[in-house]
Amino acid sequence: MSQFTHSIKVPTQYKATAKILKAAIEKQKSIKSLIFEEKHARVRSLQAVLKHYSDNRGAIDNAIEETGLLKENPNLDSALAKVLVTELIFGRGQLNGESKPVRTVRSYKEKLQQAISGSEQQKKEPNPRYVRINTNLLSVADALDYLYGEEWRRKQLDPDGTYADFLAAIRELEEDEFLMDMHVEGVLIFHHKWSHYWASHEFVHAKKFILQNKATCLAAELLAPPVGSTVLDLCAAPGMKTLHICNVMHNKGRIYAVEQSKERYKALCDITNEAGCQIVTPILGDALTMDATKCPDVEYILVDPSCSGNGMQSRISVCDEQKDDKRLYKLAGLQIKILSHAMSAFPNVKRILYCTCSLWKEENEQVVQRCLQLNPSFKLLSCKKALRNKWQNVGDKEYVQIGKNCLYCLPDYDLTDGIFLAMFEKRPDADNE
Ligand SMILES: C[S@@+](CC[C@H](N)C(=O)[O-])C[C@H]1O[C@@H](n2cnc3c(N)ncnc32)[C@H](O)[C@@H]1O
Fold this sequence. Notes:
Alpha-Beta Plaits
């Protein structure tokens, strides 16, 4: 009998993940669209490994280099090695099968672990899980009763505590504890270990709880439309902020929610409907065609336009993102158009909140600067002051009179998504000028 044994194949899930990783690194393609194109059935596990790699890229690449894994095994594919190391050290902790690459990486487990624990680029702790109570369907008191009934412990904060104390309390959160956010009413903070638990929780399916990052909740918090007022949300889908504004207004008054994409408009209608919004009028259309005849008596406007989204923590990125100046220029042009339109087409407007999930100044301070030049009847209000000075990160102070009034949420400092916010008020004497 022949002694020849067929080589054992690498499990397809590892091969498919490595293929995506390779394309993302070499061709600078977006992981999201590569996963979407992939026919492989286990998309969730692909996504989980790639997210772990994205979060710990420095530590993993470093450990592969330090242990000589690729140098000593020149036939081992680099992308496959990254996937296997990620799964072994940051994922499931074990690898399937007995293929050569799997056996090779397994034999380096101890060395890899040592390299990672000794490295300065330690595993990045994910940010906490934020859960917002949808007060259209559940009161804060009932939500707390529910949590206590499930044996969650509320971590109490000193009412005179600083923002730094609050961030420390989040970092030290025990797994059975939760915190109430210090800026936004109804935002609950849980240990990141519970992220998946909350994603599939019955209250989330029933829209009593909304999975909404705290940073994005600052938009409605700062806009602060009073109960009974009239609000215009110019870029509304999928409707997370529309719903939050509705909660802030106790579901009384009126919100015009505009969205130009048909599919996203449908999502907006579904979400606001299921979440019990009684005051939202969804409008399918272009923000730039809205005016006081279509949306009368508007007093408060939210402008949350399409942006590069580089502040979003759920994004998977496997190589250093190149700044795409052309794309930013185009996005900023649209952002300026929409914000400037909000400032000029609604005579009764009192306050406008502009936000992006971008950390690029081109979409943030520069948009604010241009719109103030174009619309001198508006001035900036200090977001930091509105948060009782309990905030640290503001805009770039080189933008005089602008930077200090704007707010940044920074993922590593504020433990949130990366968000920029700016708040405008119509000057009281503007109509007489
Ligand atoms: C960042 S998202 C808004 C997220 C939303 N505010 C939320 O919190 O769920 C931007 C949205 O604006 C829409 N949009 C972009 N340009 C628009 C325009 N000119 N008119 C109306 N909607 C627009 C996009 O289709 C997209 O759904």
